[in-house]
Structure formats: structure tokens, C-alpha cells
Amino acid sequence: MASFRRYQGRAGPRYTARVRACGAEEAKTFSTLTDARQWAKKREVELKEKPYLAASEAHKHTLADAIDRYVANVLPERSASMQRDQGSQLAWWREHYGRLPLTHVQAPMLVEARDTLRKQPAKHGKGTLSPASVNRFLAAIGIVLATAHAEWHWIDTNPMAGVRKLREPEGRNRFLSDDELRRLLEACRISESPLLYEWVLTSLTTGGRYREVLGLTWQDLDLERGTATFRHTKNKDVRTVALSADVIALLKARRGIGKGLVFPAPLDPKRPDRPSVPIDLRSAWETALRRAGIEDFRIHDLRHTAASFLAMEGATLAELAGVLGHRTLQMVKRYSHLSEEHIAKASARIGDRIARTGGA
């Protein structure tokens, strides 16, 4: 069904045609009513044929076909971390459900897959996949199906729209106390890994993610200005952060030693031509945590610690978002109570001082 609306434009009358068919709606504007009617008539026929064309394509292709096309043509445009994560998630979908024709990929099948994922062992062998991890698997196949629907026209609807995501617990917000921080840094100083202390200090003072810090190159540093630029970030936004005086001094001490990555792995003596790759600091990190007697603390919690310290020093939510690279303030609201506590304590100290001087 088509409708038409006339309005006066700068260059004369204009006509907007609006077409509704098979649940779809499109609109386009023309300079003459005749052109608008011709377009509407043609588009209405095309929209009515689209479901049948999509159904035909859905019979021709399997879920594996859709995954393979997405991995070959769309995924390479994503960030390195997304390529890695979505690549492994889509491999799971391909292995378990890839043989199914797209006509069989409907909401009940995806719900069954969701429930199967809930029973899958976690990556590090501790329990089963968390609700957040299951939702990431659903999101990975969801974007493939959305692309198959919107761009390739292999399916007439996205079946993921009918699948409920699992409820996730509130975001983790574990950060170090002053005493824990002192013990951890001391354990890192005496670590067998020569770069552990430097990496931990850099992570704590910049709030960078694990892979963002490991991905820093010497070209990303401006040690005279005291800044580091993260170019390969989770949301693809380049951001520049300040370095502390201690970090600047440590980096300047070995600035002439390395080229490429700031935190490289040792070169393979059998392959001297092998380019540097990020060093795996996890084993040294776990050893340092044991020496420091710190429990329930993960690498990503260094980022929470940096954000928490900034909040307690009075940083605004906008400042926190800028340092951490969040596009919205919603992501940093978990730290707002720390700012409020800091302000309340500061106000109390002012009140105590006034009281001591007899002004209250």
C-alpha cells in the first residue's frame, strides 16, 4: 500500500512516496507526483517478492556458508581482539550447527544452542561458561544472521530477535587497597620477569586494557610530553593518556634498547628474523600475586584499580570515561560512589577545620 505527501521545497513542490508491504516500509522523495507513483508501484512489487526470494536463498545456504562469508569479508574489518574472540565463537557455531540450512536456523534452535552453551566448560577449566560469555556467543552469531538478512538477503528476518539474552551479574569492581598495592608492587619488583613491574605500573597509571598496554610501540610514546597513545583499542577509538613520572623514568632508561613493541617477548634464538610479539606475563603475574598474598584479583582488575583511584582523587565521570576510553558515562557510573565518598570526606574535613577554628 502506497501513500503520497506533497510539500513545498525550495525549488518547488516535492512529493514523498511511502510504501508498506510484508512488514517493510520505505519512503523516497521526488520532484513530480508521476515519478513518485511509478517508484511506489515498482517498489511495492519488489517488497512483496522479497520474502519469497529470501526463502529461496535460505534453502540454498547453510549456517556454515553464512559464517564463512562473514569471516572472509566482514570480520577482517573488525579490531584484532574482535577477530580473535568472534573467530573462536563462530568456530563453535560452525562445528555444532554449521550443517543446518538457514531455513532451520530459527529462534527455538538458537534457544537450544544457548542452553547447550550454558553447560560448556569455561575457558580456563573453572566451572561452566558465565552468562556474559554465553551472551557473547549469541551476539557473534546474531551479527552474522543480521548481515545475512540486511545485506545478503539470504533470510527474510533475523531469528535472533526472538532469543532472550541471559541475565548478567553486575560488573565486577575489585580494586587494590593501599596495602595490597604496596605488596603487589614489591613482589613485581623482585620478579624473575624483568618487565613485570614496569608493565604493572604502566597499566595502573594509564588504566589501559591488558592488550592495549602490551600493544604499545615506542612510536606510541612521547616521553618528553609524558604521554602514551593507544591505537588498537576495543572500540577502535584512538586515545592518548598521561604517564606517571615513575613510568617515564623506567621507559627512558631502556628507550634505546628496543624497537617495535615496548613490552616484547625475547626473540627466538633459532629464528633471529622472527618479529617481536607481546610477551606473556601471566605466569610471572600469578607468581607475584601469590608472593604478595593477594586473592581474587585478575589482570583486568588493574584497570578497575586505576579507575577507582582516579575517582577517589576526585575525577569526574567524564574524565574517567576519557581515560578509560568509554564512549558513554554509563560505563563508568560504577565508580561514582567513590567520588561521592571522597567529596563527603573532604567536606567533613572542611567542617572539622572550621569547628576547630571556632567558626561553627
Written description of the protein model:
The chain is mostly helical. It has 3 domains: 2-50; 63-162; 178-347, Intergrase catalytic core (hpI Integrase, Chain A). 49% of the residues lie in helices and 10% in strands. It has helices at 33-60, 63-73, 80-97, 107-117, 131-150, 178-189, 196-206, 210-214, 245-253, 282-292, 301-312, 317-324, 336-356, and strands at residues 2-9, 12-21, 24-30, 221-222, 227-230, 239-242. The strands form 2 sheets. The protein has a 3-stranded antiparallel sheet, with helices on one face. Strand 4 and strand 5 form a beta hairpin. The protein is globular and about 80 Å long.
Summarize the entry for a quick read:
With 360 residues, this protein is mainly α.
Strand order of the largest sheet: 1-2-3
Q: Based on DSSP secondary structure assignment, what is the total number of beta strands? A: 6
In the CATH hierarchy, what is the superfamily of the largest domain?
Intergrase catalytic core
Q: Look at the helices and sheets and give the structural class.
A: mainly alpha
CATH topology grouping of the largest domain: hpI Integrase, Chain A
Low-confidence stretches: 267-277
Largest sheet: 3 strands, antiparallel
